[in-house]
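Hey, quick one: can you model this chain's 3D structure?
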Amino acid sequence: MPHEHTTRPWLRLRMPRPPARSVPVDVALWGVLAAATGYGFRDAGARSLFLDLLLPLAVLAVAVPLSRHRPGAAVVLVNGLCALGLADAATPANAQVLSLAVLSCLLGARIAGARGPLLVLVGCLALDVATCAVLWVQPVWWFYTLAVLAAALLLPWLAGRYVRGRRELVREGWRLAHRLEERQHLVAERARLAERADIAADMHDSLGHALSLVALRAGALELSPDLTDRDRADLAELRGTIADAVEHLRETVAVLHDAPDPDPETAPNGEAGTAVDGPAHDTLEDLVARAVAFGVPVRWERHGPAPTLSPLVERGLYRIVQEALTNALKHAPGGAIRLRITHRTDRTHVSVVNDVPTGAAMAAEGPAAGIGGRGLTGLRERVTVLGGTLRTGPHEGGFRVTADLPHQVTAHTRRRGPSPASSPAARSPESAGRLAVVRGAARRRYAAAVVAPVVAAAFFVPAAVLLAWQLTTSALPPSRFDELTPGRPRTELAPLLPARAYPYPPDHARFAPRPPGTTCEFYRSGRDLLDEVDLYRLCWSGERLVAKDTVPGRISDAP
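Sure thing. Here's the predicted structure for all 559 residues.
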């Protein structure tokens, strides 16, 4: 039924088949808990083979595998064994409190929510308290229920939630790191594709211009009087073919080239509207002159005779200088910029170095940190396509961009795999929100894991100390009890008596027959805190001891 998938998974009793790899773990856990049960059975003197050994082993054999899919039901089963132990007249403690703590920890580790498990824990504690009330147990049993059993239910559950929360935080952190890495690859790939589209546009400008000149020359030849009609027809067909080629080239570049990004921060240069922006057909001299006119402290020098550069290489050289100037203005405004271009036999070397302004430090996200936005990533792709090399990095406190370009574009077959983006991608709102949710849940779990034990300790520790103090200070050793002689006044017997009487005598001792006209006080015959010891009763008439006797601590031993 569909309803079964929406019921609470912490309490359903129909258990699916466990995976094979979980069976050895369950067997090992059952073995540990069974060993603890056997040790407790031997230590208890084997009062009941069925109730103290066989029944707990059978319940654990069901509860341990059940805890994988129905951990709440497993806790309820083992808590029933602890409640059964409260009916023992000798002591409320049994070995199943360890099993209860283990399964409570598994409940916190295997269930993400808190409402359902808390209802299970509160229900178990209510069952234990109701058992004490129905059986009219002694104060030690109440203390054991409200302190030991409550701690075995609550504290391990908080520890399990802490483990689960930490595991989820680590898993979510790795997932977000993986997504961030994928986003970096996508950003780098997008920058490379955008740069290739720019290269295609540059190719259109240069190749389209050359084809236009060829078409114009063909049109001029058509008018030559020396040509035959056949030659004129061929030239007209050639001119039409060139015009079609130019049109096809324009359409292809239009498809490859993305629409301009309206966000200035995501432009390839990482900057919009700066002094280094200009028309697409600017020369390198125009670019530097415009930067100087805007007050940019650029010093540049050119060495070697100017070679004949391929249009794509010339445009690439322009883009290198443009990107370097843009980054310098963005991350180190006011710093001096040194531009050096060296023409060699078959290659051109360009170097752009910017200094840090005096008394200023480069921004942490600037080029000195190895970050240059999409611009440097796209620039590296362009230089690689042209057959050159590009290097960027810190230099003498500033930043340097160097490149080697061939004078003519050479064919190369080296394939470049996706590399991480030079700048970390900004976290998307979705991933940032998920990380905030996970961190908030982890903080709440940590706070609960710290606050709950402190609150429990503030309540239980003083109660435990008070109870232990009352039990130990009301103990009358048997040797001193033998020295007490009826008929003697209290002043003579005071050095033999404990500091105070036992305040919690059982009902069968409190209402036992006493000498008429006397007031009776009770003292414990031993200092054992969990075991129910015999009581000494002293009956006084005024300030004189009239009678003394021994009252059995357990009602089953009473006459």
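One thing worth noting: Residues 300 and 339 are 4 Å apart (CA to CA).
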